[in-house]
Amino acid sequence: MAVPDPATLDSVAAHAGVSRQTVSNVLRHPDRVAAGTRERVLTAIRETRYRPSLPARQLATRRAHAIAVRAERTQDGISGLVLDAFYHGLAEAGQDNGLRVLLYAQPADEAAEVALIDELVHTGAADAVVLTATSAADERPAHLRESGTTFCAFGRPWGHDDEPHDWVDVDGAVGTGLAVRHLLDRGHRRIAYLGWPEDGADPSTGTDRRRGWLEAVGAASLDGPPVEARSLNQAAAAEVAVAALLARADAPDAIVCASDTLALGAHRAALAAARSARPATVVGFDATPVAAALGLASVAQPIDQAAHLCIDLLTGRFEAPDRPAQGLLVAPVLHLPS
Amino acid sequence: MAVPDPATLDSVAAHAGVSRQTVSNVLRHPDRVAAGTRERVLTAIRETRYRPSLPARQLATRRAHAIAVRAERTQDGISGLVLDAFYHGLAEAGQDNGLRVLLYAQPADEAAEVALIDELVHTGAADAVVLTATSAADERPAHLRESGTTFCAFGRPWGHDDEPHDWVDVDGAVGTGLAVRHLLDRGHRRIAYLGWPEDGADPSTGTDRRRGWLEAVGAASLDGPPVEARSLNQAAAAEVAVAALLARADAPDAIVCASDTLALGAHRAALAAARSARPATVVGFDATPVAAALGLASVAQPIDQAAHLCIDLLTGRFEAPDRPAQGLLVAPVLHLPS
DNA sequence: GCTCCAAGTTTGAGCGCTCAAACCACCCTA
DNA sequence: TAGGGTGGTTTGAGCGCTCAAACTTGGAGC
């Protein structure tokens, strides 16, 4: 069976007995069309199964109606699901705003990535980019601003407040604060922190999470001084670090961790150390299925919300390219074991 | 500073003193252009910083040069497909073949998804789709074939061999077979299987993995008959199931699991059961960081390779739309604990 | 010296849409 | 009754590319 030629603006117009432009107006500026005409055209659209051609629209408007986001090279995995959720959120929010989401493979380094983004934007494949996994040493934002590329970062401009750009981030300090208060409520009095090696130096996600713990613990005027340990983001390393912590005289009875990977290690160390007594309670970060499987509480990032806000910032900027840069912080929630 | 108008085919042509079409040929059909001219044009392209306009090309060729893939709604389970790796593989392989990867948010149900895919294809946003998470009851392939949409599934057409389509899948049976042989090599003689409740009924991923275990165990002529247990894909449920298994008179000394989630539960049960003796060895599936953290061997799916093959099948089909459907199985490998 | 051919190059047309400007009734005002 | 509006609609032009067909050459062949 022969498939009929797909309908175009012209064929729909002929079908409805109006002009091309009127059909276009019905779709893009309904208010410019008289109600009667509009109905007639809508019927024609339905009858002809008309679908607007995206490329034609892109060519005429010089807008791609798409944003690009990086597909990470395989990463440590436990928190890989977080990224999946972010992709879903972007795609969903994008669809609601007429934006498609384009994936690009993470290139070898930041320079190559900036070049690739430039390519995507200048060939008309995307209008803007969502930057993920930003850090203090990140060169991408500066380059993108320079080349005039519209973008929104998921992650704060750590230490680059002088070069403002749009960003959305999760307030890690609030998250660890929640964890501490949860533990306090349950009677814990020696609440330690297990973070990453670099925490406390340059501003970073780690510093932020640590600060939340420190402030919450400080505000509670507990027994001794706050205790902490650091470990690479690997369960085995974390297990070793926490074992040492638990062997100390002032061993903690609870541990707030910077990630679920660390929490997994901490959990094992706690179990091992507590042959007889009650094991130290561990709280994780990211609320991955691992934490749920182990019965650990964990701080959940509202990834979906963050993704929606990125899209909001971007669409806002499309409409007002010169408005000042905005940063948005969203609060995490604590997921308790069921 | 004023940004110069972006170069077009015409402006490059003028710059090089040739015609529009010659510039186009230099890019798309270099062999049709004399070497000297080609050099001159390439120089002009460089000097003018020319970037071809994707939308214009799409409009003229009626091809989107893009494929769509679904962004999953947040899923649970430690394992399952960690999609990031798949996305990255698709994006990478796509870039090598001039295909962009478009993400669409998972709709409420399969009917809505088919409608959305139809929309993407007919508006010229994508040329084809990669279907993920296929199952025996999946209605999507049938609908897509019917509407003539090009697609490739990541996952076999379980029980629908009469309606062939392009697919790529990981050979789960080979994976569990590897696990069994690994255990045999290490002296285990009573190797059980921990699968999902539905395994063995309709053909499915679970059946496939179970079969690999059964065949490998059968081929080894071991002590007693093969022992197995089933559990929902949750660590807690798996722990209960395995505890029962280990309490039996013919308790196994090793357990091959259908997922790392199950392996986590099995591991905990094994530790608990073995107060004194050596605990049963557990092997997982998917090689997630959890397995690595617990020191368990686990079957790793070559996700990246699978993604590349999906792109290969798709590009092949673009060139020969009528070639018969192809199915490709890729072999997993066993990741040993380090 | 003429035709014929292939390699190389140019021209014309069109993909389906949106913008801006032009047009057209028709009503209102002076 | 002529002179403005004002919603509603149409027209013309063009976005930047590719396809197919038409056009140039400089040999090779006779």
Automatic annotation (TrEMBL), chains A, B:
Family matches, as InterPro entries: HTH_LacI, LacI/GalR-like_sensor, Lambda_DNA-bd_dom_sf, Peripla_BP_I
Lineage: superkingdom: Bacteria
UniProt GO molecular function: DNA-binding transcription factor activity; transcription cis-regulatory region binding
Residue ranges of every copy of the HTH lacI-type domain listed in the record: 7-61
CDD domains recorded: HTH_LacI
Glycosyltransferase recorded as keyword: no
Pfam families in alphabetical order: LacI (PF00356), Peripla_BP_3 (PF13377)
PROSITE patterns xrefs: HTH_LACI_2
Keyword annotations from UniProtKB, A to Z: DNA-binding, Transcription, Transcription regulation
Protein name: DNA-binding transcriptional regulator, LacI/PurR family
